[in-house]
Structures are given as structure tokens and as C-alpha cells.
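TASK: fixed-backbone design
INPUT:
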């Protein structure tokens, strides 16, 4: 049993060594002792990073919802599974017990079945942070449908791209959503998206803001009456270990977003095991992750990981600034939150408000503070540690990715001594390596390189939906027999890892991954634009913000540049969503290019970061003269 819940550092090293020496035995024991299976596996692991192919627990049969819900009913039926805190603090919080969750998931699953959804079908879920979002994902899992949750802040174009990429038959949405003092017309966005999604047969609409919306006859239905009429019993579909559980899109450096495919058994085992240990969750704790279920953090650590452990997981609809910047602290006090998991960008935004609001609430319930999504800078780390944790709650800086499914490098609280800005040690079963630019492994400590993982773990994404070649190319071709993360990292003198940031064309803005190519494609659709290049530059709150260099077809364009800037951001909002808006847009006569015509983003990146004395050799450029003019006109 001790392997499942690590309690001191020596034990961590012991368990870690075992997990590396005998990975199959190790994961088999965890899987056997802590989950329920319809049938056990024939083989624990089969893998080949060259193909690439990874299979865990082959031959096993299970349903993840039986592990997340049914098995808790005997002992935890009345325990709160999901604690819903609405956007408006005056609206009562809703405690959904495991029993109620079971009934609601089964009703929803029956409604899906009544609408022709069966095992393997894709269902797009475009729902704000209300209980229906978690319930819809679990209902899909109940019947073996593959959910594809799209963050409800994405635009109609981004939504339709994702719906079409995985041929979703159904969309689940709501009339609208609350976001602080604002409401958002989600159904309107869905209607617009569906103009270009011929494969969608049905739209189920949850009522949240009671707005007056159009319902398309034959296609759109209100959800609640269907749920009310449905049975609270629904037999779970028996799934193979390697059957897809969900698709979740993440930005790539080029082209369309990548639909990462996660499968059932390995994902369940790893998210449950990491949840238990990384948060040191104990039976009556109240756990809160502030992410949106539209991102991987919400999938793994609001829904599946916590529920697989029979935990109480808070689902918060609102934003940290509404009705004021004390909202997070207010919720922690109100629900006596024990584990709190958020993003550096939120911490920086809250730190900017000073300590007045954080000091007036009682935060003494907190035991563990988590951080995820981007490197946490030293100042934010200390603010979080001093003012939220009162130097008593360890901060776990958890590094991982949509592709990894679960936490990969993290301190274990009360076990691993923390160090500001360091994600510290690999989690059990994880074998990170640092590589140099020539493909050689950097051995020993005090080295700095590109972060790869050399052995599979249970929740690694198995493919990109419909494009296995791209999966291979993106993650398994840079280094032989390694999974390449796209991140840079260093290992200090004691073997602690610090993530230094992306080494590809992905920019992390407020914790959201944004690929440069889709933004550039959007900008280039503006009739006045000839070409564009996006780079990241440091930003106090967002971590990184976007700097766009744009050349116009007619540089002497008579329209005022400020109007053009607004129009460009408008196009980006329409194509991707407001999160991808540019902070700075500089119009220039040309962009620095190599002789083969490739834009040298490296130079633009340096200029936007004000590192002009460090531009490297520009003489080999096709057009070295533009560099000076870009520098002279920088914003
Ligand atoms: C970055 C989020 C530094 C990293 C779970 C990674 C981090 C990308 C950290 C994945 C961290 C995430 N420290 N960087 N603790 N956590 N990142 O797919 O660049 O949305 O590759 O998954 O976020 O972002 P994603």
C-alpha cells in the first residue's frame, strides 16, 4: 500500500528506484490494488518510440466512470464529489454528492444514447464551468463516446475547426455563460461554427443565463427536460484499456491544432496516482483546481484524478477578479479548501493587488499550494508562499503537458524540499533526460538542455487524432528513441529540474499555449497585410505577451495604423479567440529573412525582448538592412 501514498523522502527515492528498475511490476501493483477492472490485462506494457506506439494494460477491460463514481457509492455516497461555486457569490454553492453525480451522469448518458451516440463516436463539449461540463464528459466516458472538450473561450472558427477535425456528431453547449460581470452568448458562437460543420446532427443546450436564443428545429434541444425524463441507471460500456477516452486539442508550432488522444486505463491509473501523491490528498480534504475543464489540467485534476480517489473537487464558474480580487481567498475560506492549484499568471495578477485582500480571509485550511502552466518566477513564488501559504504550505510547481496527461516533474509536498522556480524531482516512473543540440544526452548535474523523456509512462498521449505521422514528427523525431517535450530545462547541483521555457514556436500567454503559425495565418487574411511574424516578449502578469511584426501590401497605407491594429486583433479574436490578441503590433517595411526565404524569428524575438546587443550575425540575411529599421521603430 505504501507505494500508493508516499510520505517521506527516503520512501520517494525507494519507490522511484523501483518504478524505474521494474516499471511493469510497479504499475501493475498500483493498477491491481487501487482500481476496479472488468477483466485484468494480459500484458502491462508494450512500447516502441520508433513507430511510435505505446500500450499499457493491454487486454484489460474497464470503464473509468465505474472507478470514478460507482465504486465510491457504498462508502462515499453522501460525500460531496463536486462542489460547485457559481460566478455570482450570492448564488448558493451546490454540493453534488457521489450518489447524485452517479444519477446525473447516468441520465446524461441515457440522453446521449437516445440521440444515437455510441461507443467511439466523437462528442464536442463547449460548455462553461458549470456542473454539466463535468457531467457531460463523464457521461461520454460512461457509454464509450470520445469527448472533445473545447474551451468555451474559443471563437466560432476555432470551434468549427476542432469539431470537423474529429468529425463530432454532437455538440453540447449552454445558452450562454457568466464571466464576472459579463455574459457570453455561447449558443450564438455554436450556431456560427455549425454553419461549416455538416457532420453535427444534434446540439444539446444547457440553460444557464436564461437568454433568449435561437433553437434550430430538428437539431437543437434543451437539455434539462431530456435529463428529467431519463433513467438514473445506465450500464457502463465495457472498454478496452487502449480505447480512446478523449481528444483534447493543443496548439502546435505550425498548422492545425493537434488533437491529442488519451486512452482509458493508463490515463486513469496515472492521473489518480499523481493526484493522490502530488496533492497528498486525504479522505476529508476539499481540493480546488482553478483551471478550466477545457484544458488538460481540468480534465486530469478537476475531473478524473480527484474523482478516481473519491475526493471532493471544487468547480468554480467565475474569475479571480469578480466581484473583487479577493474572490479566490473568499472561496478558500468559505469551503475550507485544503489543496489549492492555480497558475502563475493568476498569482501575478493577484499579487499586483497587494496583500490587503488576501489578509482579510482565513486561509488556515490550506495545506498544499500548486502551480502549473508556465514557469513560476521567483517573485510570484515568494508572494504565493508568504501571503497565501503563510510559509506553512509547500508549493508544488508541477511541470507537465496536454501530451503527458498527468504531472511529470513536481515536489511531493511535505516530502521533497522545495526550491523557488524549480519543479524539482521527476514524479514516480518518470525518466527525464536533458539533450544537447547535437542529440547527445547531457549526463550529470549542472547541465542545461532540451527536456526529453526516455521511457513511457501510463498517461502519455497515444497519437494525434487522424495524423499519426505528425505525432511521430513532432515528438519522436528530434531525438532518437525519446519523447521530446518542446521545453528547455536545467538540472542543478542536486538533480532538481528547472523548466526554462519553450524552445519551439509555441508561446505561453497567461498559461495558454499559442502556436505562432495559426495567429500569423489569421493576420495574413487581412486584405492590407502582406506578411507577419509573431514572437513572445516578457510581460508582468501574462508571463509572455505577443509582439506582432507586420508588413503591409502598401506600406504607405492611408488608413491610420491604430485602426489597422484594431482590425488585426479583431481578426485574431474571430479566428482563435481573445486570448491570442497581440499586445504590440509593429508595422515594418520588411521582415528579416534567410536566403532561403525563412523569416528569422530569432532576431525578432531578441528585438522584442530588448536584447539588441545580442542579435548574432545578421550579415548572412537576405535583407540585413531591415533589422536596423525594425530596431529604430520598436514599440
Ligand atoms: C509549460 C499544461 C514551467 C511548458 C499542464 C509545457 C510549465 C506547457 C509548467 C504545456 C511548469 C506547464 N513550469 N513550464 N510548472 N507547467 N508548463 O499543454 O512549456 O497547456 O510544455 O499543459 O506549459 O502546456 P499545456
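OUTPUT:
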Amino acid at each position: 500500500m505504501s507505494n500508493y501514498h508516499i510520505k517521506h523522502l527516503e520512501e520517494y527515492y525507494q519507490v522511484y528506484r523501483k518504478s524505474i528498475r521494474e516499471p511493469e511490476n510497479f504499475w501493475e501493483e498500483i493498477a491491481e490494488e487501487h482500481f476496479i477492472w472488468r477483466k485484468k490485462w494480459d500484458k502491462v506494457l508494450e512500447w516502441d518510440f520508433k513507430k511510435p506506439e505505446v500500450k499499457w494494460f493491454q487486454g484489460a477491460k474497464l470503464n473509468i466512470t465505474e472507478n470514478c463514481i460507482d465504486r465510491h457509492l457504498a462508502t462515499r455516497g453522501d460525500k460531496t464529489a463536486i462542489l460547485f461555486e457559481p460566478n455570482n457569490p450570492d448564488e448558493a454553492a451546490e454540493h453534488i454528492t457521489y450518489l447524485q453525480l452517479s444519477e446525473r451522469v447516468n441520465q446524461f448518458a441515457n440522453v446521449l444514447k437516445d440521440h444515437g451516440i455510441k461507443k467511439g463516436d466523437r462528442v464536442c463539449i463547449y460548455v462553461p464551468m458549470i456542473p454539466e461540463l463535468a457531467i457531460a464528459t463523464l457521461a461520454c466516458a460512461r457509454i464509450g463516446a470520445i469527448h472533445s472538450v473545447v474551451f468555451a473561450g474559443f471563437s466560432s472558427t476555432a470551434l468549427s475547426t476542432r469539431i470537423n477535425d474529429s468529425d463530432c456528431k454532437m455538440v453540447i453547449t449552454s445558452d450562454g455563460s457568466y464571466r464576472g460581470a459579463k455574459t457570453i452568448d455561447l449558443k450564438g458562437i455554436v450556431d456560427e461554427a455549425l454553419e461549416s460543420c455538416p457532420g453535427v446532427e444534434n446540439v444539446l443546450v444547457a440553460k444557464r443565463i436564461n437568454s433568449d436564443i435561437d433553437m434550430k428545429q430538428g437539431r437543437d434541444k434543451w437539455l434539462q427536460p431530456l435529463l428529467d425524463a431519463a433513467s438514473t441507471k445506465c450500464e457502463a460500456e465495457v472498454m478496452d484499456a487502449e480505447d480512446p477516452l478523449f481528444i483534447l486539442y493543443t496548439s502546435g508550432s505550425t498548422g492545425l491544432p493537434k488533437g491529442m488522444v488519451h486512452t482509458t486505463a493508463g490515463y486513469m491509473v496515472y492521473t489518480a496516482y499523481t493526484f493522490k501523491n502530488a496533492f497528498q490528498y486525504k479522505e476529508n480534504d476539499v481540493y480546488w483546481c482553478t483551471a478550466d475543464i477545457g484544458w488538460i489540467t481540468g480534465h486530469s485534476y478537476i475531473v478524473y484524478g480527484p474523482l478516481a480517489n473519491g475526493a471532493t473537487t471544487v468547480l468554480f464558474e467565475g474569475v479571480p477578479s469578480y466581484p473583487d480580487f479577493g474572490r479566490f481567498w473568499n472561496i478558500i475560506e468559505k469551503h475550507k479548501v485544503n489543496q489549492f492549484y492555480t497558475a502563475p499568471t493568476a498569482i501575478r495578477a493577484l499579487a499586483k493587488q497587494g496583500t490587503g485582500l488576501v489578509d482579510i480571509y482565513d486561509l488556515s485550511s490550506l495545506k498544499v499550494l500548486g502551480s502549473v502552466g508556465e514557469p513560476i518566477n521567483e517573485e510570484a513564488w515568494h508572494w504565493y508562499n508568504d501571503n497565501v501559504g503563510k510559509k506553512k504550505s509547500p508549493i508544488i510547481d508541477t511541470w507537465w503537458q496536454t501530451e503527458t496527461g498527468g504531472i511529470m516533474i513536481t515536489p511531493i509536498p511535505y516530502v521533497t524540499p522545495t526550491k523557488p522556480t524549480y519543479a524539482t524531482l521527476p514524479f514516480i516512473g518518470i525518466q527525464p533526460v536533458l539533450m544537447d543540440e547535437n542529440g547527445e544526452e547531457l549526463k550529470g548535474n549542472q547541465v542545461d538542455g532540451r527536456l526529453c523523456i526516455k521511457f513511457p509512462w501510463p498517461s502519455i498521449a497515444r497519437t494525434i487524432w487522424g495524423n499519426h505521422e505528425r505525432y511521430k514528427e513532432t515528438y519522436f523525431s528530434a531525438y532518437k528513441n525519446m519523447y521530446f517535450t518542446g521545453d528547455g530545462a536545467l538540472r542543478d547541483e542536486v538533480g532538481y529540474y528547472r523548466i526554462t521555457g519553450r524552445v519551439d514556436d509555441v508561446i505561453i500567454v497567461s498559461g495558454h499555449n499559442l502556436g505562432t503559425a495559426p495567429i500569423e495565418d489569421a493576420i495574413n487574411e487581412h486584405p492590407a497585410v502582406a506578411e507577419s511574424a509573431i514572437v513572445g516578449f516578457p510581460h508582468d502578469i501574462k508571463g509572455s505577451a505577443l509582439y506582432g511584426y507586420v508588413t503591409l501590401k502598401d506600406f504607405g497605407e492611408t488608413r491610420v495604423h491604430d485602426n489597422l491594429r484594431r482590425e488585426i486583433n479583431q481578426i485574431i479574436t474571430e479566428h482563435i479567440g481573445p486570448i491570442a490578441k497581440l499586445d504590440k503590433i509593429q508595422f515594418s517595411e520588411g521582415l528579416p529573412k534567410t536566403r532561403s526565404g525563412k523569416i528569422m524569428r530569432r532576431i525578432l524575438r531578441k528585438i522584442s525582448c530588448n536584447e539588441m546587443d545580442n542579435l548574432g550575425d545578421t550579415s548572412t540575411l537576405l535583407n540585413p538592412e531591415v533589422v536596423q529599421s525594425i530596431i529604430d521603430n520598436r514599440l
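COMMENT: Residues 250, 295-297, 371-375, 397-402, 423, 485-487, 499, 502, 508, 513 surround WTA (CB under 6 Å).
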